[in-house]
Amino acid sequence: MTRKILVVTHGGRQEAVAGLREAVPALCAAGFEVVLHDHDLAAEMGTASFVLDEARSMLDGTELVMVLGGDGTILRAAEITHGTQVPLLGVNLGHVGFLAESEREKLTETVQRLADNDYVVEERGVLDVRTYLPGQSEPVHDWALNEATIEKAERTLMIEVAIEVDGRPLSSFGCDGVVMATATGSTAHAFSAGGPVIWPDVDAKLLVPLSAHALFARPLVVGPGSMFAVEVATRSGAVGVLIADGRRRTPVPVGSRVEVRTGATPLRFARLNQAPFTDRLVSKFNLPVVGWRGLADEAADEVAAATRPHGSAADADPRETTTTTGTTATTGTTATTGTTPQTSQTR
């Protein structure tokens, strides 16, 4: 049985096209039927193609959607797979690439792992977003993998909003906007706005005000059963815009109400690396961890201390030992210098 893969990339980027020219022959050689979203590239490489806006009709019988690009391209591909059982696998050709699972230099290895079925599928929660506009009885329905953001539509004016949690009013203030994010999105826009990093296995939602003119305007974290609501207050001198994952925009005039809940159907990702999320943070943000010894070294020190003979020199109070170097005395070691080879003993 032929295994089918849809490949989505940024056809306008030379690096993406170069990656595609490497990936497609490797996938075909591994026995996959490859379908591309770019007609010109598909014709060049002799594969089938699809229109991105109609791609969901191509998912029948598809094992996986491979994305060659950065987080923006992955969010674009997520619009294809949302609400389905087909997983995404991102190969990072961008900068941080937090949603990607592999890097450009490991593309050949990635294809082989797919051919060997050597991957697992992980589910990530999404947001269900409903916008109630003045004079309309039915809401505008949207969703987000990373975040839904209400922003001011005019640069020179703040937007006045009222915040509600689980049907109860919490606060109101003027601001540049409000970010409501998933755990996945906590490392995106919400992170830049000063929100906390939420580990992906924590089923939570996050709200972060943007440049709020208020004393109580701190990030909020709630559970999966809770609902955020943001209303554009009638006193607001500016209208807003709702932006889902930086891609889909809905105007929110004065009197609008946006409700954000946990989505019913998570998004699926193919994972090749089961390393802890902490390691991903360190890698993606290039965090400094030089000097960390870890629990293994601490445990070794404890074992050494427990097995050391009582009364040994290493058990002596370091304040009671001295170092003689000419006429200078220091504490903590015993050593002699000069023509005699130096020896030292430290605890």
From TrEMBL:
Please give the catalytic activity noted in the UniProt record.
Answer: NAD(+) + ATP = ADP + NADP(+) + H(+)
> Which molecular function GO terms apply here?
ATP binding; metal ion binding; NAD binding; NAD+ kinase activity
> Which is a Pfam family this sequence falls into?
NAD_kinase
Spell out the residue ranges making up region: Disordered.
Answer: 303-347
Q: Which SUPFAM superfamilies match?
A: NAD kinase/diacylglycerol kinase-like
Annotated compartments: Cytoplasm
Q: What is its EC number?
A: 2.7.1.23
Q: For bias kind Low complexity, which ranges apply?
A: 321-340
Q: Which parts pass through the membrane?
A: none
This entry carries the following GO cellular component terms, namely:
cytoplasm
Binding residues for NAD(+): D71, G72, R76, N146, E147, D176, T187, A188, H189, A190, F191, S192
Alphabetically list the UniProt keywords. Answer: ATP-binding, Cytoplasm, Kinase, NAD, NADP, Nucleotide-binding, Transferase
Catalytic residues identified in the record: D71 (proton acceptor)
Q: Which InterPro entries match?
A: ATP-NAD_kinase_N, ATP-NAD_kinase_PpnK-typ_C, NAD/diacylglycerol_kinase_sf, NADK
Q: What is its main location?
A: cytoplasm
Question: Which top EC class applies here?
Answer: transferase
- Cofactor(s) annotated in UniProt: a divalent metal cation
| Example of a GO biological process term | NADP+ biosynthetic process
Looking up Gene3D superfamilies in the UniProt record yields: Probable inorganic polyphosphate/atp-NAD kinase, domain 1, Probable inorganic polyphosphate/atp-NAD kinase, domain 2
The entry's family comment says: Belongs to the NAD kinase family.
> Its biological function?
Involved in the regulation of the intracellular balance of NAD and NADP, and is a key enzyme in the biosynthesis of NADP. Catalyzes specifically the phosphorylation on 2'-hydroxyl of the adenosine moiety of NAD to yield NADP.
This one is known as NAD kinase
Q: Which organism is it from?
A: Sanguibacter biliveldensis
